[in-house]
Every structure is written in structure tokens, then in C-alpha cells.
Design brief:
InterPro entries: SpoVT-AbrB_dom, SpoVT-AbrB_sf. The chain is α+β, with helices and mostly antiparallel strands. Helices cover about 40% and strands about 10% of the residues. Among the domains are: about 35 residues, no CATH class; about 40 residues, no CATH class. The radius of gyration is 23 Å and the shape is flat. The relative contact order is 0.07.
Length: about 110
């Protein structure tokens, strides 16, 4: 369980606050934050400037599958290049306005 820390912070006449260094460092703030208001409580989350591109997971899979030498790099690049199109397709399918019926979701594939 994470320890709870509390600190009283002044608010300037321009509604500005200073985040204590200990808090700033603890949550890994870089250049931006996201502030979320939920039931009268403000939550502050860091905006991560790096994106999770699944490189480590892809590389681990490629090595585990037995690729060696230059084939590791070739297969890694091939799989990494497949991520963006796959995500784009998932977004397209998720935002499709075409209604889906229960039969489409759970119907038998063998029906003609």
C-alpha cells in the first residue's frame, strides 16, 4: 500500500499553486500534467511524453520464438510496423456507425 503524504500549499492571487518538489519527483512530472476533478477532489497525473510502443514485449517474443542474428532485427521491425495499422483498424471498428446485431455477434459461423 502506498503511503499518504499531505502538505498545505498556498494559492496565489492568479490561482496558481506550486507542487512541492517531493511530490513532483515522486509522480514523475515532466512538462505537463492532467488535472481531473472527481467528487470535489483534484487529481494530478503526469503526462508522459514517451509513448509505449510495445518494443520490449515485441523483442521478448521474437527472442523467445528462436529468432537469431539479423533475423531478430528484421522480425522485430516487421512486427513493430504492424502496430500502427492494427491500432488504426481497431479504432475504425470501434467507431463504426454500422449497428451490430446479436446474431452478428453470437450467431453460428456455419449458417449460410
Amino acid at each position: 500500500m502506498l503511503a499518504t503524504k499531505t502538505k498545505k500549499v498556498a494559492v496565489s492571487s492568479k490561482r496558481q499553486i506550486a507542487i512541492p518538489k517531493e511530490f513532483f519527483d515522486a509522480i514523475g512530472i515532466e512538462k505537463e500534467i492532467i488535472m481531473e476533478l472527481n467528487d470535489g477532489v483534484i487529481h494530478i497525473k503526469p503526462v508522459r511524453t514517451h509513448t509505449d510502443d510495445f518494443s520490449e514485449e515485441i523483442l521478448a517474443d521474437v527472442i523467445q520464438e528462436g529468432f537469431t542474428g539479423n533475423d531478430i532485427l528484421k522480425e522485430f521491425q516487421r512486427r513493430k510496423n504492424m502496430i500502427r495499422p492494427a491500432i488504426s483498424q481497431m479504432i475504425k471498428e470501434a467507431t463504426s456507425t454500422k449497428p451490430t446485431s446479436i446474431d452478428d455477434l453470437f450467431g453460428d459461423d456455419d449458417e449460410d
